[in-house]
């Protein structure tokens, strides 16, 4: 299945999520999937912190190796962010009156996905948390200690 297939399923299940141009945004993720990588879950939302900004839709895919955020720009070009388990710090979930948002804290930046259907928040949190808990076990907990030996 492509990222678009997953995003389309998500949007159909959680109709209250504000997301546009799903095919174009998901295609950015599909371009960067490695041959040995498999999409486990994907969703779409606005890559910003403003509930009033509806023009920064991104497709977010959890693969067996990382989290990818793809966003096709309206005129030309695209942007892609990759979050590997070693760069992931934490995640917060916020539920508002109409929509919810997911805030992913990484070593380098804080990424906010907003305008998500409130009903989708538990599913998204479960998918990201489950993946990260499993994936982080593969990384050494104390790098300084390991470097000394």
| Major beta sheet summary | 4 strands, antiparallel
Strand segment count: 7
The end-to-end distance, rounded to whole angstroms, is 43 Å
Strand ordering within the main sheet: 1-2-3-4
Question: What can you tell me about this protein's structure?
Answer:
The protein has helices at residues 3-13, 22-31, 121-136, 143-148; strands at residues 39-46, 57-63, 67-72, 78-83, 88-95, 99-106, 110-117. By secondary structure, it is of the alpha+beta class. The strands form 2 sheets. The chain has a 4-stranded antiparallel β-sheet with strand order 1-2-3-4, sandwiched between helices. Strands 5-6-7 form a 3-stranded antiparallel β-sheet, with helices on one face. A hairpin with a 5-residue loop joins strand 3 (67-72) and strand 4 (78-83). Helix 1 (3-13) runs antiparallel to helix 2. The chain is globular and about 40 Å long. It starts with a helix and ends with a helix.
Topology (SSEs and partners):
Blueprint: H1 3-13, H2 22-31, E1 39-46, E2 57-63, E3 67-72, E4 78-83, E5 88-95, E6 99-106, E7 110-117, H3 121-136, H4 143-148
Antiparallel strand pairs: 1-2, 2-3, 3-4, 5-6, 6-7
Helix pairs in contact: 1-2
């Amino acid at each position: 299945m492509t990222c678009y297939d997953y995003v389309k399923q998500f949007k159909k299940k959680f109709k209250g999520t504000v997301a546009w141009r799903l095919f174009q945004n998901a295609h950015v993720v599909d371009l960067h999937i490695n041959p040995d990588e498999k999409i486990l879950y994907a969703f779409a939302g606005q890559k910003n912190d403003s509930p009033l900004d509806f023009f920064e839709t991104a497709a977010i895919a959890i693969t067996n190796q990382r989290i990818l955020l793809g966003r096709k720009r309206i005129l030309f070009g695209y942007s892609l962010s990759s979050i590997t388990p070693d760069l992931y710090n934490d995640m917060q979930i916020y539920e508002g009156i109409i929509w919810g948002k997911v805030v992913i804290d990484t070593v380098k930046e804080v990424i906010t996905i907003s305008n998500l259907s409130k009903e989708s928040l538990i599913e998204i949190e479960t998918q990201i948390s489950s993946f990260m808990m499993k994936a982080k076990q593969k990384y050494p907990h104390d790098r300084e200690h390991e470097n000394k030996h």
